[in-house]
Amino acid sequence: MTEQIPLPERLVNEGLRNEAGIVEVRSDLAYLTTGIVNVAFIGYPKSDWVLVDAGLQGYGAKIVEAAESRFGSFATPRCILLTHGHFDHVGSLEFLLGHWENVPVFAHPHEVPFLNGTTSYSPPDARAGGGIMTLLSPLFPRKPIDVSSRLAEVPLQGEVPDLKDWQWLHTPGHTPGHISLWREHDRVLLAGDAFITTRQESAYHAVVQTAELHGPPRYFTPDWASAHQSVRMLADLEPYLAVTGHGKSVSGPELSVNLHLLADNFVSIAVPC
């Protein structure tokens, strides 16, 4: 079984990293790695901006520091967009909402139960693909957080609040309400965990971020048929640059070639035996 698609070094978009750790991949798009997961900042420096995801618990101050290094002292986002509600994408959300008053949080309607204290995620599959992260996955938090006082649903027609050039795309599989963000004019994709660019099941790869194209993290993906359809849809967009939830950003004409390869061979590459 093929387990990954190695990405050539020329595809890896290192971008410009500032002193706070932000990697700029477009003049109005940057990301920060919080441990093993990325958060993204959409907006030009010193202007209005939007935060995508909230990283691991304990990284709230680091996210604030990075935001202020890019957007100015006391910079506050127009909103926080969540690709989904897994613990590694919302871990610092409550800290950030305490720091930034009156900032709304947007998520897909199918993700709301995991964000309003109602529903826990399904148990992980500790046999899904090996690796220490997989073995440890039963210990990962899956209970819902409750940010209902700030929570709103993304608009139904695909508009992204406060981002007129972007649209959200429903990309379920990893979670029921997982979304990705797409900007058509320059073919930029924020994929969340619909696909990722490192082997998240391996602690070594998750930390070192070896550049490989993978489906969503295996241990926390319950619906593989939907995950496959989501990757197929994203491949058909022919993205030129992708920032994923885990791993380094990648760009170039070969990205869409490799993404089609993942979609065409999804069962053998991504789905656990």
Brief description of this entry?
This protein has helices at 60-71, 87-90, 93-99, 132-136, 203-208, 224-236, 254-264, 266-269; strands spanning 5-6, 16-17, 23-26, 29-34, 37-42, 50-52, 80-81, 105-107, 151-153, 159-160, 163-170, 179-183, 188-192, 212-213, 241-244, 250-251.
Question: Any overview of this molecule?
Answer:
This protein is of the alpha+beta class and 273 residues long. The chain has one domain (5-269): Metallo-beta-lactamase, Chain A, CATH 3.60.15. The chain is 23% helix and 22% strand. The chain has helices spanning 60-71, 87-90, 93-99, 132-136, 203-208, 224-236, 254-264, 266-269; strands spanning 5-6, 16-17, 23-26, 29-34, 37-42, 50-52, 80-81, 105-107, 151-153, 159-160, 163-170, 179-183, 188-192, 212-213, 241-244, 250-251. β8 (105-107), α4 (132-136) and β9 form a beta-alpha-beta unit. α6 runs antiparallel to α7. It is globular and about 45 Å long. This is Glyoxylase-like metal-dependent hydrolase (Beta-lactamase superfamily II). Pfam families: Lactamase_B (PF00753).
Q: SSE string, helix = H, strand = E?
A: EEEEEEHEHHEHEEEEEHEHEEHH
E-strand count: 16
The CATH superfamily appears as Ribonuclease Z/Hydroxyacylglutathione hydrolase-like
The value of Rg in angstroms is: 17 Å
Strand order of the largest sheet: 2-3-4-5-6-7-8-9
Low-pLDDT segments? none
What secondary-structure arrangement, pairings included, does this model have?
Blueprint: E1 5-6, E2 16-17, E3 23-26, E4 29-34, E5 37-42, E6 50-52, H1 60-71, E7 80-81, H2 87-90, H3 93-99, E8 105-107, H4 132-136, E9 151-153, E10 159-160, E11 163-170, E12 179-183, E13 188-192, H5 203-208, E14 212-213, H6 224-236, E15 241-244, E16 250-251, H7 254-264, H8 266-269
Parallel strand pairs: 6-7, 7-8, 8-9, 13-15
Antiparallel strand pairs: 1-14, 2-3, 3-4, 4-5, 5-6, 10-11, 11-12, 12-13, 15-16
